[in-house]
Design a protein that fits this description.
Layout lengths: L1 E9 L10 E10 L2 E10 L8 H7 L3 H4 L5 H12 L3 E4 L2 H19 L12 E4 H8 L7 H7 L12 H15 L4 E7 L15 E4 L17 E7 L1
Parallel strand pairs: 1-4, 4-5
Antiparallel strand pairs: 1-2, 2-3, 6-7, 6-8
Length: 229
Amino acid sequence: MRQIVLDTETTGLELTQGHRIIEIGCVELINRRHTGRHFHHYLNPGREIDAGAVAVHGLLRERLESAPRFADIAPALLEFIGGTELIIHNAAFDLAFLDMELTLLAGAHAGSLPSSVRAVCSVLDTLSFARERHPGQRNNLDALCKRYGIDSSHRELHGALLDARLLADVYLAMTGGQSVLAFEEFGSTRDGIGGFAPGLIETVPPLSLELLPHPPKNNRPIKIAHIKL
């Protein structure tokens, strides 16, 4: 099964204000394994970038002046993602921008390009999936990386390719790509084993049940659960 993990960065949040995509990053998975193949481009939006957006991703318009336009990379993008399952965090946001960009091209290409991403691939929204698995908790990418023991310490700013790579690891963890050893002290207010707090999860190789954590310093007993995610 071929899947593509996709992320974008934009000039701002609102389509109605004419904002555009300025970076797109895709990572390929085949049969739940990283292949090393990716698709990545910075894009010239032809407009100013909101200060709030710059604070998130650090991309300035001057840096993008010589970058291609979305129209230049659209055929290659569609070829890369065509026939796959797209994995996107908060898919509604990225799809709205991608569909807008494709719609703007539809007239010029007279039907040779689709006006919607869903015309060429299916979509899985990892934000919706995470909310079902961890209701009432923070489920942004940083929170999920921390919850599943994925190192995101190098993520000082958002970046489409970086975030796609992190999301690929989060997706694999959430859907069975790793095992975790969860533990908590008896007497804790947390009686279940779902929705783990920071510090209550240790990633271990599958079947390595002998790798138990050391007892807490206060010698209070702990309860152990090995969970296949």
